[in-house]
Amino acid sequence: NAGVTQTPKFRVLKTGQSMTLLCAQDMNHEYMYWYRQDPGMGLRLIHYSVGEGTTAKGEVPDGYNVSRLKKQNFLLGLESAAPSQTSVYFCASSYSTSTSGGLLSYEQYFGPGTRLTVT
Amino acid sequence: KNEVEQSPQNLTAQEGEFITINCSYSVGISALHWLQQHPGGGIVSLFMLSSGKKKHGRLIATINIQEKHSSLHITASHPRDSAVYICAAGDHSGYSTLTFGKGTMLLVSP
Question: Cα–Cα distance between B80 and B85 in angstroms, integer?
């Protein structure tokens, strides 16, 4: 199993350019997440998905769009990149079970990260 | 919004020392996660706990729900333990959305 993979590993963009980051997981997990990590700040949730065809906003969604057309893939798009989006981006996935007490979710598995620089 | 605070921010230790990293949060949670990130490396989940104590090898995690506090202990520390340790609070949505602390950078010298 490859686990969670991210493409690309590094990218340099000019302001105003667009790009898509791809996250793929082979663990059949329902839940997938996109985070950004900046120096001096904790990881922050950008968007997440609780199943194929569904997405939701996290803490810092502005400037990003996402899509989950297939269960195993979660795409993060930057339509018009800005220097403030220079960061390391991590994707993660997790599974859940349904119990009599409600949804029970588990540990998250992280991808290796994508280092994005916007000049 | 949950506020997650970690202490200390930086920690240096000699090989063999017992290490404690603390984490506090402001709002009730579904579970508390401890993660490890090596320099330039990816992020690995160490523990997820909602009560009591968990142990894995030389690592021990505890949580006190009433006090909204968790600790990560490393016994007999080793240079390979040098990494950033991150705690994260899971909300009650069932979707495991996490609020992260800023991390504790640990350096263990031989």
Answer: 13
Token couple for A53: 């065809």
Q: What is the DSSP string of A75-103?
A: EEEESS--GGG-EEEEEEEE-EEEETTEE
How far apart (Å, rounded) are the C-alpha atoms in residues A7 and A37? Answer: 17
pLDDT score recorded for residue A100: 63
The residue among A75, A91, A79, A86 whose CA lies nearest residue A116 is: A86
A88 has a chain B CB within 8 A of its CB: no
Q: What is the residue whose two structure tokens read 């989950």?
A: A68
| Residue of chain A minimizing CA distance to B46 | A107
Higher-pLDDT residue of A54 and A98 is: A54
| Inter-chain touch B45–A108, beta carbons under 8 Å | yes
The reply to whether residue B96 touches residue A105, judged by beta carbons under 8 angstroms, is yes
Whether chain B has a CB inside 8 Å of the CB on A94: the answer is yes
Burial of B6 per CB tally in 10 Å (0-12, 13-18, 19+): buried
Residues of B with CB under 8 A from a CB of A: 4, 30, 33, 35, 41-45, 48, 86, 88, 90, 93-103
**For range B103-108, the mean pLDDT:** 97
Work out the average pLDDT over A71-87.
97
Query: Is the pLDDT higher at B81 or at B28?
Result: B81
Contact across the interface for A108 and B33, Cβ inside 8 Å: yes
